[in-house]
Amino acid sequence: MQKDSKKKIRPEQSQAKPGLEKNLKPKPKSQPALAGDKLSGKVALITGGDSGIGRATALLFAEHGADIAIAYLNETADAKETKKVVEKLGRKCLLIEGDLGNETHCKKVISKTLKKFGSLDILINNAGTHWEADSIEDITTKQLMTTFNANFFSIFWLTKNAMPHLKKGSSIINTTSVTAYRGSDHLIDYAATKGAILSFTRSLSANLAEKGIRVNAVAPGPIWTPLIASTFSKESVAEFGSDVPMKRAGEPREVATCFLFLASEDSSYMTGQVLHPNGGEIVGS
Fold this sequence. Notes:
The chain is an alpha/beta fold. The protein has helices spanning about 50-65, 75-90, 105-115, 140-160, 180, 190-210, 225-230, 235-240, 255-265, and strands spanning about 45, 65-70, 95, 120-125, 170-175, 215-220, 275. The radius of gyration is 20 Å and the shape is globular.
């Protein structure tokens, strides 16, 4: 028998149409949730925070009062530059180098963040990688496992190890992709990981809703990041983003605002949802 989930959560009441807000019990909350810094006093862990979308998100979070831990693979020069700017904004920044496709390292990332800051409020699972392949026959098992370890299993391991330290009001935000919705004929294994992230986000959000921990995602389209220039041919890079309705690639800062919204109280009534900064491509949600 299905359990009836409905229960009274406010006093019974009735009004003549169109109704008066002043007579509602309790009164609706209409004032902005926060003024000024949206993440003041928060600690955010951002994977892939050395460059691209991750860097833009780290800088925006710092502007809004958060201390930042950045987990990255080996792009130390970029990571140090990000840290420099975060600290100029008056916030603390911890750099953690290593392979997130390794479960043991994921555990260390969480423990190092907690050792530095004493708490964790926001987990941004953003790091990812991809390789082009014309055919599934060109995708080796090694490449497949590397892609899933980096893009999906890292998210599972980091989230699992973060859970004992998250509390009501905490936020988990995962980076999926437009390819999770429409696929990609030349990034088959990458698109598959992004589909897994989408399902993981929806499932975990339902699991954690009653604990007051929100889980959402961002699904970028073509965004101008170092991964693009390091993956595609010179000709493809020159044309990158020109096929979307807005006829250009997006900038990392145009995606970072999605993460800020989902991390802050501005999105307090959203969980299990996905935002789509993709230049106007219409995809199923």
